[in-house]
Amino acid sequence: MSELVVENASVDYGSTVGVADVSLRVNSGELVAVLGPSGCGKTTLLLAIAGLLPLSAGRIAVGDRGLSSPSGTVPPEKRGVGWVPQEASLFPHLSVGDNIGFALSGGARRGGARGRERSARIAELAELVGLEGLVGRAPNQLSGGQAQRVALARALAPRPDVLLLDEPFAALDTQLRVGLRREVAELLREQGTTSLLVTHDQEEALTLADRVAVIRDGRLEQFGTPEEVYQQPASDWVARFVGDVVELEGEWRHGRVSCALGAVEAAAVGFTPRDGERVRLMLRPEWIVPRPDLLARAAAGADARVSGISYAGHDAMLTCDLVTGPRVRMRLPAVELPQVGEELRLAVQRPGLAFAA
Ligand SMILES: Nc1ncnc2c1ncn2[C@@H]1O[C@H](COP(=O)(O)OP(=O)(O)OP(=O)(O)O)[C@@H](O)[C@H]1O
């Protein structure tokens, strides 16, 4: 069993808080993304799990094997925790094969039974990451994507209980990044590797992970499935951080918010509003849709004029000026788009989120 348990973990750098009271459980074989802005404590959390930073409070364990607590830390090499760094950091004087096999025993005595076992494992991993023809190459003869594959194979070689990936795709160009990260996520799932992936890229976290841990100022703001953190953010900060939002002022009345888009059904987050109370309505741009069938007088809707279109191929972001004043953004599939200047009747197709004003 290789469930990773982090319980009320805190790491202090003198007077600076690295992470504070973070609790999360990564199930065996699960891929969890740790998402947060720069400086929020993502790397600190990973370093603590790797045994490179001591805890000032809490505990870290894999299954029922305790790894870190304020009273002691199992050294990094004995934790069964693998690490894939941001830059591949391969050993320049070793071949691809020897880089992959670096943490395997039997390296010194080639040819013996252990040496043969090691070679077989290197070949198996090289094939797994799609580098079977390149084991004899030097690291400086690899592309950035190939080097990252070697770093992944090297980390997987000793069959770690838990794999930590610290922004492993950040240095790659967009097209390569998207392809490689999908491949790596599939590979980790196939291998059943319990993995924690640090990223500041919302799309990366939402598309790859089984669950996402959103961190802010060293604290865990939300831990949930990609759908939960996107559709039901725990706070207005998470709502803004994990995706685009449209924000409107309004008044709460019987489960709806009366605002510039009409009377929009909404769920209150983190508070219980009174009827008549001022609230802030948050919507995702794709929750707003044109509804030509909706009567102009309908309470759930508003008239608008398209003032701008930002085309992204698969979809487009439209800026619309509501006749009631505010400007909203709306995301539509780029199949049949309206024109700039066109008048639309807009409605909200799913309940919005109401936050305290
Ligand atoms: N060695 C250190 N000494 C003192 N403070 C540190 C040290 N390392 C990190 N910090 C502070 O701890 C906090 C968390 O830093 P951390 O590197 O974990 O953030 P991060 O989320 O990984 O950021 P980034 O995405 O920019 O890498 C920050 O306020 C940072 O300034």
From TrEMBL:
The keyword Ligase does not apply. The keyword Transport applies. Pfam families: ABC_tran, TOBE_2. PANTHER family: SPERMIDINE/PUTRESCINE IMPORT ATP-BINDING PROTEIN POTA, SPERMIDINE_PUTRESCINE IMPORT ATP-BINDING PROTEIN POTA. Keywords: ATP-binding, Nucleotide-binding, Transport. PROSITE patterns: ABC_TRANSPORTER_1, ABC_TRANSPORTER_2. This is ABC-type quaternary amine transporter. Its EC number is 7.6.2.9. It comes from Microcella alkaliphila. It comes from the Bacteria. Residues 4-242 form the ABC transporter domain. InterPro entries: AAA+_ATPase (IPR003593), ABC_SmlMolc_Importer (IPR050093), ABC_transporter-like_ATP-bd (IPR003439), ABC_transporter-like_CS (IPR017871), Mo/tungstate-bd_C_term_dom (IPR008995), P-loop_NTPase (IPR027417), Transp-assoc_OB_typ2 (IPR013611). One of its GO terms (molecular function) is ATP hydrolysis activity. It is an enzyme of class 7 (translocase). GO terms for cellular component: ATP-binding cassette (ABC) transporter complex.
